[in-house]
Amino acid sequence: MPPRLTRAQEIQTALADDIVHGRIGPGEALDETRLAAAFGVSRTPVREAIRQLEAIGLAEARPHR
Description:
Radius of gyration: 12 Å
Helix content: 40-55%
Strand content: under 5%
Distance between the termini: 41 Å
Largest sheet: none
Number of helices: 3
Order of helices and strands: HHH
Number of strands: 0
């Protein structure tokens, strides 16, 4: 049985899929509050998912934006 994904990993996978398939366009902001509401979670797993996307080069951090 494969290991279960954390909520942050599930969100990261969903966001990566949206980025790769063009549903989230280049330069489009990944708003933590909006994404948390859409996924029904707090901002913490969303923040972690975005950090994972940054680590693999699919997102770029822009402080205070």
